[in-house]
Design brief:
Length: about 725
């Protein structure tokens, strides 16, 4: 053990981390028995605080790493937290000439799901499947017996969708998964829900069939895993938690009700050992309500834990931003306070974000708006080229000249509501045009957008699945006799076959033919050889490959007997679900270098990341006052998340004193989304869109009608606070 003074000295001299920030210091140096509620604004160094807090427990308070539980939202964040803890622990130990002698593999730092898996599956033969495999299995359940064509089910899901248009099979699958997850996450009385159902009875047939498949195979998905852990905690069957003294929870604003109850149960163990529970989060950065997160669990945390545990954690606000320039911070502070009603959804007495005293004023926030998408893409691509490898990085605005290049080879991200390059209506979108323009201009600039295409249509997935298809059904007998599958799925299967037949013809190769029961691992070994060259072509191909192979392997483990499958099983359980669009890119797959690519991603994907230059799409698809675009600019209703919440609400134990209306929640979600987007920027923030967003549009009998948009300064009372976006420097 060392003194607090010595620890602070080592942090400043060995780790080169200042302890001048009083709020950070208060959070780090708290006594072991002090529980805390830390509201950490963007760029406020919360990861640093968490790591230094863990190390303080070890070096000052003599608490073993084994006695600390740390949870965070993603696997990537958990890895970063653990790696930094290990590195800094070794640096301090060396400075003290102290033999650390600790196996860091024993540290309990991970997502709640990874920690739950370790506890629940300890000594038991249980497999936990990822989200993409869960989606594929649900799709298989939906398609069997033509359930996806049930009219009453379609009507029910369309009503829940609460927007224009119908529901295709992929949307049906996603909605059913969302409903099922919320049943678990909101701790819904499932039997009562079923009992009071009307025409949606087939929904429960699908959910029950899916659950039975997992039960029969000894498989858990994440909602079932968390529920199993909760049940064990309620039954006091987790003796391995008896010795823990500290529970640290990161990203608490994205916690759901089931997770809250798990954390409160786990807190009982640490409090009994005179330890603490500390939660860290930011209500302004809550993005996952559609996955079951309930923001009120964070904003009302002090009351809820006092009611449940009888403790009053200390409130700490981390308000100093070390990431962005002063101009960006001022812009963000202005944006978050435009909508007065939004204030009621925030943490009480929340302060403004403050820049670090060493932060430069930097460049002003800029806007690039053009008459059409082609003109915008040309100018935007020219700018990106110049910023990456060109020389002309200055832009004249009136009498002033701004040099937009603040460093060589800056990291650049384009953030949008959806990174899809082609819309559902086969219309090319901004990400498509940017990729085409940039890659066509220079081979030295790589565009990274793994979510830009549907996985089933990518080259690498087409090759892998097409080779499986041809190997098990060379004459297309099974494929041609498949019933009850959507036309899109049939088309994808035919596309796979055609691409592979062309590939084999060009390469003058043949695939091994498999008959009878198939050992899928053997087939995949044969296929892997053919995919190696394509994988090497891009980081995106590597991600697609890893996802689809993981999906196939997990699904195989879930449904095979002794590793063997029939050709029909492979079709129905693997190929058809993938072809139907049930598999998506998982956020944790984005563990790539961000500096060398032009990163195109959704705002949700960008959470937790930072870039030198951030370009935010605030309305490149919005060229008229179209109802179909309303939810991503200025909601007219609560949306499908609210519909699901309302549908399940009467059957949940979740009760909130400050429950907002659906429409207000939709507005709040949108404000938070753009707040996250704008706060990713370090040196330059650019808003891009069409001039219709600035000046209105010319409709049929209506001239110059404004298009309300939260991202461009409209509050929900239909007041435009940034008239023509005059607060931006337009380039």
């Amino acid at each position: 053990m060392i003194s607090q003074e010595k620890y602070i000295e080592l942090v400043e001299t060995i780790l080169n981390r200042s302890m001048d920030n009083s709020s950070q210091k208060e959070a780090i140096m708290a006594p072991v028995d002090e529980s805390q509620y830390i509201v950490a604004g963007p760029g406020s160094g919360k990861t640093t605080v968490l790591v230094l807090k863990i190390l303080k427990y070890y070096f000052v308070d003599d608490i073993s790493f084994d006695d600390v539980i740390v949870t965070t939202f993603t696997k990537k964040a958990a890895r970063e937290l653990k790696n930094r803890t290990i590195l800094w622990a070794k640096m301090i130990s060396e400075a003290l000439d102290y033999d650390l002698n600790y196996d860091f593999n024993r540290m309990v730092i991970g997502t709640l799901d990874s920690i739950a898996e370790d506890i629940v599956c300890d000594g038991e033969s249980i497999e936990v499947i990822d989200n993409f495999t869960s989606s594929a299995l649900m799709m298989q359940t939906l398609l069997l017996d033509n359930k996806n064509s049930n009219k009453k089910l379609k009507q029910f899901l369309k009503k829940l969708k609460n927007s224009v248009g119908g529901v295709n099979t992929t949307e049906m699958n996603n909605q059913i998964r969302s409903i099922r997850e919320r049943i678990y996450y909101d701790i819904v009385d499932y039997d009562k829900l079923k009992e009071n159902s009307n025409n949606e009875y087939i929904l429960f047939d699908i959910i029950d069939a899916y659950n039975m498949t997992l039960k029969e195979r000894g498989i858990l998905d994440y909602p079932m895993l968390e529920t199993r852990l909760y049940d064990m905690l309620c039954d006091c069957k987790v003796s391995r938690l008896n010795h823990f003294k500290v529970l640290l929870i990161d990203e608490y604003q994205d916690t759901n009700y089931l997770q809250e109850q798990i954390y409160f149960k786990m807190a009982g163990y640490v409090l009994e050992n005179n330890g603490n529970i500390t939660v860290v989060g930011d209500d302004d950065q809550s993005l996952y309500r559609f996955r079951g997160a309930t923001i009120d669990l964070f904003t009302e945390y002090l009351k809820r834990i006092n009611d449940y545990m009888g403790i009053t954690p200390k409130s700490i606000f981390l308000k100093k931003n070390y990431r962005s320039t002063v101009n960006i911070i001022n812009f963000v502070n202005e944006f978050i306070h435009l909508d007065k009603k939004y204030e009621s959804s925030r943490s009480i007495n929340k302060p403004l974000i403050e820049p670090d005293s060493n932060s430069p004023n930097g460049l002003p926030v800029m806007g690039m708006f053009r008459n059409n998408i082609e003109e915008l893409t040309t100018d935007l691509s020219n700018l990106i080229y110049d910023l990456k490898i060109g020389k002309d990085t200055s832009r004249r605005v009136g009498s002033k000249i701004y040099d937009l290049k603040q460093k060589d080879n800056p990291s650049i991200a384009i953030l949008t509501n959806s990174p899809k390059e082609i819309s559902a209506y086969n219309r090319h979108r901004l990400p498509f045009y940017v990729r085409e323009s940039i890659t066509g201009r220079s081979e030295d600039i790589a565009v990274f957008n793994p979510r830009g295409q549907n996985i089933e249509a990518t080259d690498i997935v087409s090759l892998i699945c097409g080779l499986i298809l041809v190997s098990i059904d060379s004459d297309a007998t099974i494929e041609n006799n498949l019933d009850n599958i959507p036309p899109h799925t049939k088309k994808i299967l035919k596309d796979w076959r055609k691409k592979v037949e062309n590939y084999l013809s060009c390469k003058e190769k043949e695939v091994p033919l498999y008959e009878d029961d198939i050992v899928l691992s053997d087939l995949l070994d044969d296929i892997e050889v053919e995919c190696s060259d394509l994988i090497k072509e891009s980081s995106e191909n590597s991600i697609y490959h890893d996802i689809i192979m993981e999906t196939i392997n997990q699904t195989n483990n879930a449904i095979s007997d002794e590793g063997r499958l029939s050709a029909n099983q492979i079709f129905w359980h693997i190929l058809v679900p993938i072809a139907s669009g049930a598999v998506n890119v998982d956020d944790d797959m984005f563990d790539v270098s961000i500096d060398e690519n032009i990163n195109i991603m959704s705002i949700h994907q960008a959470k937790g990341l930072e870039f030198d230059i951030v370009i935010v799409d605030v309305g490149c698809d919005i060229y008229k006052n179209d109802a179909s675009s309303a939810f991503k600019r200025f909601p007219k209703n609560g949306g499908k998340t609210h519909s699901i919440e309302k549908y399940l609400g009467d059957y949940s134990k979740l009760s909130l004193s400050n429950e907002n209306k659906g429409l207000d929640n939709a507005f709040n979600d949108l404000i938070r989304r753009y707040f996250v987007a704008y706060t990713r920027a370090k040196s330059l923030l650019i808003l891009v869109g069409l001039n219709s967003m600035r000046y209105g549009y010319k409709g049929d009998f209506q001239d110059n009608i404004k298009i309300p948009n939260v991202a461009t300064g409209w509050s929900r009372d239909k007041i435009c606070h940034w008239v023509n976006l005059d607060n931006l420097i337009h380039i």
